[in-house]
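BUG: 3D viewer hangs when loading the predicted structure for this chain

Environment: internal workstation, default settings.
Expected: structure renders.
Actual: progress bar stalls at 90%.

Input used:
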Amino acid sequence: MNLLTMEHITKAYTDRVLLNDVAFSINENEKIGVIGINGMGKSTLLKVAAGIEPYDEGKISIGNQVKICYLPQTPEFEEGTTVLRAAIADNVNELNQWTIEADARSMLNKLGFYDYDEKVEHMSGGQKKRIALVNALLTPADILVLDEPTNHLDNAMSEWLEEYLIGFRGAILMVTHDRYFLDRVATRIVEVDQGKLYSYPGNYSEFVKLKAERQDMALATERKRKSLLRTELEWLGRGARARSTKQKAHIDRIKAMQEIKDIQEEKKVVLDSVASRMGNKTIELQNISKSYGARKLIDDYSYIFLKNDRIGIIGPNGCGKTTLLKIINGIVKPDNGTIEIGQTIRIGYFSQENEYMDASMKVIDYVKEVGEYVTTSDGKITASQMLERFLFDGAMQWSKIEKLSGGEKRRLYLMRVLMSAPNVLILDEPTNDLDIQTLTILEDYLDHFDGIIITVSHDRYFLDRIVNRIFSFEGDGKVRQFEGGYSDYLIRKELEGLDTEMSLKDVLVIMTAIGHHDEATGDAVDPVSAALILADKTDVRRNRVQNPVPATFDIHDRVNYAALSTKLTIQKEKKVIQMELELDDEICTVMDYFEIFLERMIMCRRAAERLDCKFKLIANGNKMC
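Structure tokens produced before the viewer hung:
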């Protein structure tokens, strides 16, 4: 059933047309993800659909009984309101008056709130956004309109919200840049581009594939049009006579073809800067500790950063991730311990909240504060040329910062950081408010960045794409190190959580049970070598991202995951295990071990399911956004 229909909608701000004669509809139980470059009108589309903002032209039809709930990007609350009161505001009725507070407390707990009487005005913007999210989810609505619901959520919170929205009985219209989230929740993707809307059925993985097909078809149609126009112009140049009706109609068709605008090439941010030279000494943390009152954030932590380190820092909100970044950058002093920074180290700090921007300043003047010229791989370019590479055209360069959208301000801030030619990039939640296309280009830039990258992020795809080492805040000031990306971290944690850990010997016997054979000769391989082969075949995270793999999980795939947990120790224990296998006369039958294997693989299923959306996305290619 159709819940909302928009026909011939046009919306403009001064001379910027954000929605140009667009049509759009929302059907019952649809979950629609809206994507597009920052400043193209995604939030405007949501506000118009929710009735928050008027439109210039067109018509919107809504069912008589349809209720819409809107979650803004930056919510506001009345002064003096407590957390619980804000969460249930305007949602209490006769049917839920006895249960709504319990429901609100449960959701608030999931999102990290435990003091329900705390005043909202004392909280950060991220905490206010999470309270507003609870209020929206408690609102009885047929259409949920959510603007950036995943911002300021840690990984566990994002996964909880995914499950909630998947089970939500109603329609959802949302803007989010979390690609894993879109892949799991969305049933349709709508792209806002140059004032037009393009709809794609399916999740984000399907969108990547279908958009590539649409662009190929559009380019083929454009080539045919130009070829035909060239032929017609040649005919016209030979001296066509316009006295007959047919001749006049032919000439009119040629004029109509000439008036058709060429396909505009999709605008993309161009990230380019030159990193400063890095000496032998980088950044060394020795026995760092930091507490606020009785709350211990970091306890006796040491680490020496290596050249080309790619570090991802994860943990619950408020555990001390940003504090660690500020300690490294010298903004916050540790209670104990020392920080040594090499003389050649130049840090670029992209903070979670944009640095202070004078809203009355022009965009071009804000950039020129860093320098009139920027050194890139192509040589020196002017500040104006650099702005054009970041999609700030001539008119926008001379407009005031206050007129930019939140995403455009974020992009401008990123540009200023890169202009300083850092060799250490510290990125605190870099994916917040950046559109997917800019994120993809940023990821490609970081792949080739010649220096150290340290990032705090709750974007699971970004972590899998960029980092090769995870620092996990485990509570009580403890920071634990894991090798690989975020998915590798999840596998390790899942395997650690098993009641009975699968031993290396069990893995080897399982290899024997399922019969691993040499791919070249077809001969059976001894169990130890079989496990080593499977361990070697288990790609590191970066290869898995760059080379598509099947999204299905058969028995061999699951054994690969089990082998991954033993890969670091298998070389050392090879000879010992060989002796144990030779001396063990009481090995159970193949079926007995196979049953053990199946029981334990069921316990690993959750880890495999969490990776499913990642591999679907990779299989369709992750370069297109």
